[in-house]
Give the backbone structure.
Amino acid sequence: MRLDEEFDVGTLPQSTNNFDPLPPGWYEVSITDAEIRKTKAGTGSYIAVRYDVIGPTHQGRVVFRNLNIRNPNPKSEEIGRQQLGDLMRAIGVPRLTDTDQLIGGSLKIKLKIREQEGYDPSNDVSGFKALEGSAPPAPRAKPADDNPFAGEAKPASNPPWMR
């Protein structure tokens, strides 16, 4: 199919994406997404967590980590739940009932490089630590149904015409 314009490779932007694994070590991160997903086999579930690196180097890079919370393999489930507990302690969340409670949490994660036959090397999260002076993430308000006014502050007293 014919294009309606001509593209010159010399004028097109070059990608700055770098998908090489980060060097092993500790990184300060912020959790920007967390959601429950089913395993491929459909026999378990995990929390998929996205960490955005905020320092001290490699700001803007992203690391993903899955935490098994239900798995037919008891050892896999135990490891995933232990990691979830370490993550919750690092960000100051004593009880977790919704993955949104994780979002906004800041902590340090320890990265190592995982080598797998047939795949490029990738990062693996192998530890969690609290940031000094960090506070737990603020609760995220969820709109009720499709109410456009959900989450708005309610007035502390009656409006002036009702006083």
